[in-house]
Amino acid sequence: MPGTTRRHAVLHRARPRVAVVSLSQGTRPDDLRRGLESVLAQQDVDLDVVCVGNGWEPTGLPDGVRALALPENVGIPAGRNAGAEAVEGDYVFFLDDDASVPSPTFLRDAIALFEHDPSLGLVQPQVVDPSGAANPTRWIPRIRKGRASDSSPVFSVWEGAVVLPMDVYRTVGGWGAPYFYAHEGIELAWRVWDAGRRTWYAGDLVAHHPAIDPARHREYYRLNARNRVWLARRNLPTVLQPLYVGSWAAIQVARWWRHPRRLATWFGGVREGWTTDCGPASTMGWLTIGRMTLAGRPPII
């Protein structure tokens, strides 16, 4: 970690400056436009909005949104990072191309949380399927789920709609580009904690997103396992790495013991995670581990 961020609020402005990054492959134009229009409708903030085309030239964007075309699909975290380099603001808001925010004061309300509590380094809202479908419990990133409307510190995030002070985003090094897909939200949350801040689930803020099974992605099980190992290798002290991976191996066996092919794919991903390059490590300190443990979740599960 480059260093611990000072616990002070971002300079208060009557109209906070918010950088917004929307990542898309151009496959959901209606959802993309809905999300961008929900951002442009935000009140009492100044916006700098970019749509990143991940292997796609963004077209047909609403006025007020710039396009950034990447020549190839570099993966979700690297694509978000590219967008963050193209915008400026006191805060940065990452919004997936199939997500939107229903309240025109969403960003101002999120910023109010940071202004009220400078210990916060990241905010994730409650996620709701606007069609009325059941909301997956995985959208509540805590072990004891409780009510979706309850707020609390958390140690992972659903990545589709998150807000950070820009200085915190820069300090933690952005999203973990090597992951390509899956678990980059856990690393981001861990590194916010390691920067001396807290990651916060705000049950009183709402983002919209359809309830879609993440296993729809063809390589979900392999990447899920590989990235679990990479997460440990990139962030945890050596002694904790096998404990973290072992705890998740036990959880997956308990979940999928009736699905041997799924387990075989998962353990193949584990092997890949131990034998391939995971990119640069930034081992969290024991003080951070202690803070996370006292807050409710040691980083071994």
From TrEMBL:
UniProt cross-references to InterPro entries, sorted A to Z: Glyco_trans_2-like (IPR001173), Nucleotide-diphossugar_trans (IPR029044)
Say yes or no: keyword Ligase present.
Answer: no
Q: Which Pfam families match?
A: Glycos_transf_2 (PF00535)
Tree of life domain: Bacteria
| Coiled-coil regions listed in the entry | none
**Keywords, sorted A to Z:** Glycosyltransferase, Transferase
Which part of the chain is the Glycosyltransferase 2-like domain? Answer: 29-126
Q: In which pathway does it act?
A: Cell wall biogenesis; cell wall polysaccharide biosynthesis
The record's similarity note reads: Belongs to the glycosyltransferase 2 family.
Q: What is this protein called?
A: GT2 family glycosyltransferase
Per the UniProt record, the source organism is: Curtobacterium luteum
